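Researcher: Next sequence.
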Amino acid sequence: MKPGRGLQAKFLTTVAIAVLVIVIVLAGLLQRQRAMQREVIVLGQQSIQALVLERLRVQGRAVGLLAADELVNPLYYFDLESIGRIVRGVLNQPDVEYVTVYDPAGMVIHDGSSDIASYGQPMLDPIAGDVVNSRALLLRTHADIFDVSAPISIGDQRLGGVRIGYSLESVRNYGEVANKELERRIDQIGQRYLFGIVLLLATLVFLGLAISVVMQRTLIRPVRRLAEAAREIEEGNFSAALPSRHNSDEIGQLVHAFARMTRGISRHDRDMRHMANTDALTGLANRRAFRERLEEAVARSSAAPCEFAVVFADIDDFKRVNDTFGHDVGDELLCRFSDRINDTINADADIDALLARLGGDEFVLLVRRVDGVDRDLRQVVSVLAGTLVHDLSKPLTVAGHTFVLGTSFGIAMFPQDAQSASLLMKNGDIAMYHSKHAGKNRFSFYMREMEISVERRLRVEQDLHGAWERGELTMVYQPIFSLSDARLVGAEALLRWEHPLHGSVDPAMFIDVAERSSLIQSMGKRVLHVACAQLVDWRQRSPAGAELFIAVNVSPVQLRDGDLSAQVESALDSTGLDASSLHLEITETTMIGDGEAAALAFARLRDVGVRIWLDDFGTGFSGLSHLRRIPVDGVKIDRSYVADVLDDADDLALVTAIITMAHALGMSAIAEGVEQRAQMEILRGLNCDFAQGFHLGAPIDGEAFARLLASGTP
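Model: Next structure:
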């Protein structure tokens, strides 16, 4: 063998070995590159899917809790219109497939449709049972839907819940697009480095090492750091550190895009938190935010004892504004009220206060005394509440209408009245309702006796349910006589309750309880029917009843919330009583408060032939303008004037004026509460038309009245 040929062989062999080594190295590098690409794609898929799903989870949780908070009052008052408006607002959000409001039994109350086709139907999907039985926020995924269900409760009373279904289709589409983009970018990077390796094959050993280092630093490390950042963001840490990239290559663009996405999610999270803790109408803190602040204040007091007060505020008779002028005017009025409350508390230098809107026309304040103020906190809060009562009762002009509305306040002190957030809110609410019962437009500090009164009223309301069916509620009838000839001309139908344990219940009390619940509608309808049927029975049994009329009291709630004319016509049709024999009595204060509703209802009834009497005349300061707006057939002189007609010249003058005015307007005058013969004689001398009272006859049952009808004299 020639030396050259041997060297050549060695060279070729060396070259072949070098080429083989280079090929092996290249194959190894290519295999390593593919492995890294797969790892990057897998990590990217996991990161993007986790990030998108977490965003949907955060959004669903926030929207579910917010919707549940907004639905408390509408669901409590079964206001389908408000429920529908809230449901449709949620349905308009991106990716929302359905929104369902259901009752505690799982029956659908509203689904956002105009006709609510599914109303009253059970939810039949696979997770409906878990949703109905859950008393906490429930996040579940089934089929292609991410379901968020939130219970709706007031205190311990569960009203139902709301379900929001998000489509996972957009999540998958977003993930697929992002994954394809990531895969394309990585392919571009791989091709770029592969092209360089092919061109510089002679230096592949050195370039391979360099490329490996570059790949490690420019691709694997940034993507791994992005994956770690995605996991931190998933846990709620939106300030997670990202790789430092100053170049504009694909990885740099990916890092910058990830940073922008992180800032967007963080901003979205802040916005959602703001929405979850802010009242959308007034911009005040909402119930959720106030409850958190209150619990924080209670918790801090364990380390540093302090005093503060919770002040509940409820606008009196605000529902009439919405019913009469619409919700747009009502919303503007609420905003003006909140501004006026803020102005008052900001003007008081002795307090530090947080104002929140609980919903509807209810507001609440968390009030602390500023350091350095010598006055007792109770005194400070008392001055603040008195100022608020005064300021909020001033006229407000909205949309060309002037409103004068009072506000009732209830105050609970910490730690004197309660030592937990729940009890403070409960006791403040009790004190506020005490202010309403005491006459409205005032403030009351919580006392234990108030809670006892509330519990007693609650027991009365519970016992009142089914009282008709148990035979505890009965009708009695007080005779009404003509004063000119002492002739029995009519009877006033009165409702009485004989409780099996407590005996006779004061009518004023249980009627008030019935009016503040839903019972008055069914009770009033039944009273109308029974009274009409009783008069028909008397007429069939005695010819003396042919000209007799029956008078029935009408509740303000029946005027405001029910179809009174339909109830009256139903009672007349079912009993066969002629309309002219039915007299409906409405109080003067009701006519003032519900003048428009009364005018419409009584206009229809008077067209039918029903007579209208104005009860308790002289106590409501209504004036002649109301009598012109709502024509009536007669006025009943309040018993307080009749009682002193013998001894008080002013009352005698008032009674004389009322009778004269009634006759001048073509009305009858009826005196109630006649207890003495001398009173009756004076009224007869004043030409009063009719009278009733214990001197003429006490309220009696139907059979006793039939016997009285046969005699025909008081």
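Model: The longest helix spans residues 3-70. The chain has four domains: 3-50+172-276, 78-167, 287-446, 460-711.
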